[in-house]
Amino acid sequence: MAANIKLFPKIKKADGKPMMEFNFWRKLLFMVCMLLTLLSCKEATKNDDALLGRVDAVLADAPSGKMLKGPSILGIKNKFVWGGSVVKGDDDKYHMFFSFWDCGPDSIPFTSSWVLRSRIGYAVSNRPDRDFKVAPLVLGPSMSTGNWNGQSVHNPHIKKFNDTYYLYFTGSSDIEGYPEITKRNRVQQRQQIGVIAFTDFEALKKGEYKKFNAPILGPRTRVKPGALVKPSPEGTVALPDNIITVNPSVVYNPNTQKYMLYFKGNMYVPEWRGVHGVAISDHPTGPFTTLDHIIFDVKMPDGSTASSEDPYVWYDDTMFKAVVKDFSGQISGNKKGLALLVSKDGLEWTPAQDPLFRKRELVLRDGQKLEVDRLERPQLYIEDGVPKVMYAACSLADTNTKVKGGTFNVQIPLK
Q1: Portion of the chain with pLDDT greater than 90, in percent
Q2: Which pLDDT score, from 0 to 100, does residue 1 have?
Q3: Is the predicted pLDDT of residue 247 greater than 50, yes or no?
């Protein structure tokens, strides 16, 4: 028979009555358990720190070819997935809004489908850098009481100012006439920026949010050689908000107490060039006053102008900073990588002392470096002015002609 051994033998007083169960030995065991818990938490933090800058994902086969799958990847079967933007809610969860649209053998190629079919999806996670779960909420033309965004909505940008959330987006619709212009180009030439406002995510899920019947920012000039929807009078000088206003990034300027909305327009001088501008307002929803000069027009030592796109702008209590896609690599030294620009006033920008923000590659959990074809639409999750996580639209291979998907949103914890 096994010995009857008690882990915590009762210690009796002089009168023979037992002492309380929570005696010295129990207290000692409790302290040991607490110490082990603290050590395991420290080890977990150490492991998380070791993964900074790495993507928790593995290569896998997919109908479109090779694809990344894992906790740091937001991809949806039979869908193209593109840019995502995240905000921390009052519920301590992380809420992502992202672009997506249908794909498949009978679909149209990526280069046209994003213009004609994009919608905005919604996902939630307990962490900012992984495990986003898609929720049953799709935002589309109903985001406006007008019809200006009746065809598609794209490239969401979520911000919280005071007690209200603002979801900025690009929207567009088709127009009758102009048979010499394809539907794809008609819709693309009518892209403008809109916004919805809401106070909590449960209300948003119920469709309880403030809508506007018109875009908050549209183009003032429409100048282009060749076919164009509603061209400006001959001799009009193109402004930064020429033909389109897309890819919003909004920041509050504490020095002027104004809201600054950065956007992209198109110019032809005579070849196409994407340019950026900024519009100023007293309120997150406008009305906005658009400035006439180009923003992020970085001049290089040889006199050329660096080509950039997709700015994400923030203020870190000392200066304005912006992450941009560096088309030519002139700013960062990495072609189509991500560059860092800085500014004292949000208007005049120069490359940072270390201008390379991110190479056009992903570092996987096991340390494997994977060069990608696209790493675009950078959006950041920021705490106390410091970027903690970057979200980017990504594809491993050229996706322009693809119809079966192959794009996803990647979440990268930053060092």
Answers
A1: 76
A2: 45
A3: yes
Give the per-residue SS3 of 33-77.
HHHHHHHHHHHHHHHHHHCCCEECCEEEEECCEEEEECCCEECCC
**Separation CA 193–CA 219 (nearest Å):** 10
Express each pLDDT in 91-140 by its tens digit: 999 999 999 999 999 999 999 999 999 999 999 999 999 999 999 999 99
The β-bridge partners of 361 are 371
Give the whole-angstrom CA distance, residue 128 versus residue 125. Answer: 7
User: For position 142, what pLDDT does the model report?
Assistant: 86
Q: Which residues contact 16 (CB under 8 A, 6 or more apart)?
A: none
Please give the Cα distance from 377 to 379 (Å, whole number): 6
C-alpha span between 69 and 283 (Å, rounded): 40
Whole-number pLDDT of residue 300: 75
pTM over 0.85: yes
Residue type, 264: K
Residue 11 has pLDDT above 60, yes or no: no
N- to C-terminal Cα distance for the chain? 60
What integer best gives the mean pLDDT of the chain?
89
- Label residues 400-414 b or e (16+ Cβ within 10 Å = b): eebbbbbbbbbbbbb
Backbone angles phi, psi at 59, to 5 degrees: -75, 140
